[in-house]
Amino acid sequence: MGRINTNVQSLVAQRVLGSNQKSLAQSLERLSTGLRINSGKDDPAGLIASNNLGAEIVGKNAAISNSNRADQVVNIAAGGLTEVSGLLTQLQGLVTSSSSTAGLSQAEKQANQLQVDSILQTIDRISSSTSFQGIKLLNGNFDFKTSSVNSGVSDYKINAAKFTGNSLNVNVLVTGSAQQGGQFLSFGAATIDTATGSQFTIEVGGSQGTRQLTFSSSTSLTNIAAAINSFTSITGVKAKTSGTGIRLDATEFGSANFVSLRVVNAGGITAAGSTGVYDLNANNTNVAKTTGSVAFASLTNTKTNKGQDLAATINGVAATAVGKTARINTDFLDVEVTLTDTQSRTLGSVGGSNPALSITGGGASFLLGGNVDIAGKVSIGIQSVGSSKLGSAALGYLSSLASGQGQNLVTGNTDQAQQIVTAAISQVSSLAGRLGAFQSNTIGATIRSLGVAVENSTAAQSVIRDSDFATETAGLTRSQILVNASTNILGLANQTPQSALQLLG
User: Which DSSP category does 193 fall into?
Assistant: First the structure.
């Protein structure tokens, strides 16, 4: 080796030393930051995957925060409902105690009415004051808003709805009519004609109970119908005269309601002409069958005719129906629609080419997913629990129990008042149950699911991006040794050309 202009060994030693120093610097960086990927050059694909996972983790953590916030909102609403429920229970007791006409003075009834007024005022105050950060929760603020409600819809309740755009049409298609249970009693005359010394005794029953009624000869059909109707609240059966007969109908539609009839004593009424008991026409329950009658004397066993529940689809989904009310509960729509008597018997689309109703907004909406899209959103309708909203159009509303109103406890109809209070209790209980299910099944499950997802995503990101200290420590030690060795070798390589000087003698 006699060349001194080019020291190849030194160049090799320098290259190796630079490589070892670079490896040492990388090990020091990874150990100091704790990250295996500190820039794109370390692992381009790994950096992309790590950043994507990081974005997902941030979104999921925000969704967990939203879920916890939603849980607190519902907690506050549920607390208000608990108080309202307790007040309604007290109201039920006041109505019951005020229904006793004997042994209860006018002053006591007036005192009870003062309590009723106080309870109604408190319910309205809770309805308007229950709030979260100033947002009222129980005054209907979070109820869904609707428009274009068809006249065939007598009542509706929107529990949840998710949609894009300005509105969501609710289309109801009646595929099977709702019916009341019913029977027709034909006497062939405007009065009954029993044998001498005999009486006509029947047992009329319905979903509420049964009553046995006895009538003497020459009793008019009008009086018989009136007698049956005097027990309607007890039997669930109503009567009306029709020509020379009496029609019995269940007070409500649906398979849970029925009319039963048993002739305890036919009173010698002969089976002449068209007398007897007829079923209603299956295709048109407004009229009775013209054949298949059962003679009064033969009806010693109870004859029962049940009603029929509505069959319908809502937005193409087969609905669960009870009486005239149909409901669907899907991820995007939970709605309950009650039809009028006529509409529930009419097959076809409610509203024809128009929707039964349109949802135009409202509801309490929460984003419980990591991505801002309709799949991650949930909504729930929270109806008002004010006294003017609890009850129904058919029965009346809770506010009608106030002083001076139709169902007050001093001069009003306490039977009707109790039905209204019962309906209000059912509505509040139903709302509280929906909120509880929303907390448990939707919010609770979402928080748990997102928590697991965050854990798994964080673990995956760690595997991709974090440093393995055992490996990096071993690499650091190796790099340190190699750098020291390379430095010593470079020194030796730089001294090698000096041996050429010996040739100059």
Answer: -
